[in-house]
Backbone:
């Protein structure tokens, strides 16, 4: 059994922290928590902190992993984020049929080119 209880924080690196933090705040709609100077910003999503920071080493200066944000209504959330200026990578569509639900996803790119997704499980 693992001692790990839950995922608490994830990080995205960028060379323009204020601009990327504004995108996730204003376009994606995440809740701002606090800034720690011009190069460190924290937002909240479902009890997990999203830390936006400058890369601390050259090997960390690359695109982030793909983050999947859970939404209740995929079509509505997708349309709202697209209307606020996010670059659509793939519109909402069925990803997988499970025995008890369907998994639907859509994809966007942030201003740094990082891919992120919205996902909804439809019963």
Residues:
């Amino acid at each position: 059994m693992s001692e790990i209880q839950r995922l608490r924080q994830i990080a995205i690196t960028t060379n323009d922290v204020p601009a990327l933090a504004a995108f996730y705040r204003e376009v994606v709609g995440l809740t701002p928590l606090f800034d720690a100077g011009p190069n460190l910003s924290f937002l909240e999503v479902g009890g997990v902190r999203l830390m936006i920071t400058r890369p601390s080493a050259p090997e960390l200066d690359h695109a982030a992993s793909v983050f999947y944000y859970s939404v209740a209504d995929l079509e509505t959330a997708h349309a709202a984020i697209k209307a606020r200026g996010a670059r659509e990578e793939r519109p909402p569509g069925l990803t997988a049929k499970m025995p008890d639900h369907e998994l639907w996803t859509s994809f966007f790119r942030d201003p740094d080119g990082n891919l992120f997704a919205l996902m909804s499980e439809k019963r």
Remarks:
- Strands lie at 9-13, 31-35, 40-45, 48-53, 67-70, 87-97, 102-109, 115-122.
- The helical segments are 17-27, 74-83.
- The first helix runs from residue 17 to 27.
